[in-house]
Design brief:
Chain A is α/β, with parallel strands linked by helices and about 200 residues long. Helices cover about 35% and strands about 20% of the residues of chain A. The longest helix of chain A is centred in the N-terminal third of the chain and has 11 residues, at about 55-65. Chain B is globular. The chains are: A alpha/beta (about 200), B alpha/beta (about 190). The interface of A and B includes residues 23, 62 and 82 of A.
Chain lengths: ~200, ~190
């Protein structure tokens, strides 16, 4: 079964070029590298740990900043650790939170062991069952172009999109590891003081 | 709106507003103290001891509440709320502390303000032996991952403790758990 997959860096670059003011949270590992490779910015919040936290940090930001769109870019492994978060986010029903799962069907950081998403678990279907307002599985960069247009339109609730990406370890583009600095510059971007 | 919440320093008023509390009035007074500290966001896994607080927060239209599938979600949500300019509190039972440990590396390492209120089980008049191991491990686990841990055994002490914990969390960037003793909560009705 060799269904088509896409280049993760190109896909993420497309999403970020079209972010239109969206605040971005990244899951640990390659999604953080992909977002950093597209250009380091103060309105990116990168995780280097706290596996399973990305979507929920996104929820917290979305609830505190209802007038801004929040885009979480994470991997299948990171989202698998936050399976229940899809229930919590669906119940919270933010209209400004989009989850993008970069799905290579493997735990890429730890030796490319295969993950649940290559064995029948589809996050688009799980999120749809939870009640997300829009979900889809994408397999081509052309579909990502269409998604970028769709993300500009208002949503009735949280949305989740699975991007099936090629399983490969690309050269790392490392975001800052100073967690306090990344936090403070993100808050400063929104006009908040730092301690 | 959120910026003004950030700018004010309500803690002095919160501390002054912590009167001597009859034992059964502490949930209402803790709620008032949390509101006075500028908290407008709350996440929880229910516990009987948190019933009144959950009810009061849920009834307040200005407060956003999240019911969680597991307690660690609340730690990540609280960090996100702070990034977006809101002050959040997380409510859980001691059994849920064990679910949070690795996620607590987020507020500890990034120095996010964190205020967690933990109702204790497994330490006083406990009828369920399954509550005892995590109840006994709660304080040690929280300290091991780097939180400041405070305890209260009476209503008045709890109200004062929460007021100053909120000040330290949000004005001094600390990660604080307040343990609400099972002796204060009373024997669970069964």
């Amino acid at each position: 079964m060799n269904l088509p997959t896409m280049d993760r860096r190109v896909a993420v670059k497309k999403l970020l070029d079209a972010r239109d003011g969206a605040l971005v949270v990244t899951g640990l590992g390659s999604p953080s590298y992909d977002v950093h490779a597209a250009g380091d910015r103060n309105d990116n919040y990168y995780l280097w740990g706290a596996m399973g936290g990305a979507a929920l940090i996104g929820l917290g930001i979305a609830q505190a900043q209802p007038d801004k769109r929040v885009m979480v870019i994470t991997g299948d492994g990171e989202q698998l650790m936050a399976f229940g978060s899809l229930a919590t986010i669906s119940v919270a029903r933010p209209k400004n939170l989009d989850l993008v799962v970069l799905d290579n069907q493997h735990f890429g950081e730890t030796g490319m062991q295969s993950s649940h998403t290559g064995k029948g678990i589809g996050f688009d279907k799980v999120a749809a069952a939870c009640g997300f307002s829009k979900t889809a599985e994408l397999r081509s960069l052309e579909e990502v172009d269409t998604l970028c247009e769709e993300l500009r339109r208002a949503a009735d609730g949280p949305r989740l999109f699975v991007l099936k990406i090629t399983a490969e370890n690309l050269p790392r583009s490392l975001p800052p590891r100073d967690a306090v600095e990344v936090k403070n510059r993100f808050r400063a971007h929104l006009g908040f003081a730092t301690c | 709106m959120t910026a003004s919440v950030e700018a004010k320093h309500p803690e002095a008023g919160a501390l002054a507003a912590a009167p001597a509390a009859p034992e059964r009035q502490w949930p209402d007074q803790v709620y008032e103290v949390l509101k006075a500290a500028g908290i407008s966001h709350m996440s929880y896994v229910p516990d009987a001891g948190h019933t009144t607080l959950i009810h009061l927060f849920s009834e307040e239209p200005e407060v956003i509440t999240n019911v969680l599938t597991t307690e660690e979600e609340g730690i990540a949500i609280a960090a996100g709320a702070w990034l977006g300019g809101k002050r959040s509190v997380v409510l859980m039972q001691s059994s849920g502390v064990g679910n949070c440990i690795n996620m607590l590396s987020l507020p500890v390492q990034a120095r996010f303000p964190l205020l967690v209120l933990v109702t204790m089980r497994g330490e006083w008049a406990e009828f369920n032996p399954w509550q005892v191991p995590m109840g006994q491990a709660t304080e040690a686990s929280l300290k091991a991952i780097g939180l400041r841990v405070l305890r209260a055994e009476t209503g008045p002490d709890l109200v004062e403790t929460v007021a100053q914990a909120a000040l330290m969390a949000f004005d001094a960037d600390q990660q604080i758990a307040v343990l609400i003793g099972q002796r204060l909560l009373g024997k669970k009705k069964w």
